[in-house]
Fold:
Amino acid sequence: MSHLLHTGAPVRTPELVILGGPNSGKTHYAGQLYGRIRRRPGLLRLRHEQGTPSNLAALEEVLRCLEEGHAASHTSADAWAEVLLPLVDERGNAIDLRWPDYGGEQLRSVFESRAVSDAWRLRLTKADGWILLIRLKSEPTYPDAFEELKKSKEKASSSNTARAVSWDANARWVELLQILLHVAGLGQLSRLQRPRLAVLLSCYDELGAAPQQPPREVLNETLPLMSSFIESTWAPGEASIWGLSSLGCLLEPNSENATFIDEGPEHQGWLVPPEGGTSDTDLTRPLAWLVGSR
Structure:
């Protein structure tokens, strides 16, 4: 899995699995991440000695849209692409990072059908780290489940149309994670050390959370069952929770945001680290943590 640079330093080749449903922010994070490592490097940057990778068309298109001040289109439902990013960390360690991009509907399909393709199974099994993007404001929860069921039945009776009650996000994410862990052959008798898990609470600017508040507390307040499942499944220090705002604000497909046009998208967006406190503009930090280059 590794080869040598002319310097004799081994190149690590970690593989990541990106987990996120439709509208979870995967596309904009990928584009902003690419802009960062190209133009405003932090803990990770591109390795220029090997030239610019040739398979970056999708990320280039996202970055172009952001430069024009508007949102990029979402990845199509049936798309799958894998980008190889030749990186180097602040210590000079070379890393070939494989970044997958796919339509979020595929993850929804895994949950609904309880079936995982061989391609997904292989990626889950080989992955060194999982990145889970969750847009908390879009996650439905039902504090009073019986009341929701009653209302749903009343509406169904009045319209003579059967209606399915949406899953509470706590139960849906726990169920999905259990499916993925089972497919990857990862038991839960002992707490996991691999793959590492980075949970990115995307569109964090929507929440109005106090900057000093650790994102884990925000997740626990919003999705307590899921938060508890992560804490009990992964070993201490092997799962981290981040607040992520890839853009720092809402962009629409037809917007012309002057800040993005004048200053460049690489100067927009921020994240809140697991410990909370001051926000950080280095969007590569969760990836650096996942691959062990902190």
Remarks:
- The chain has one domain: 11-290.
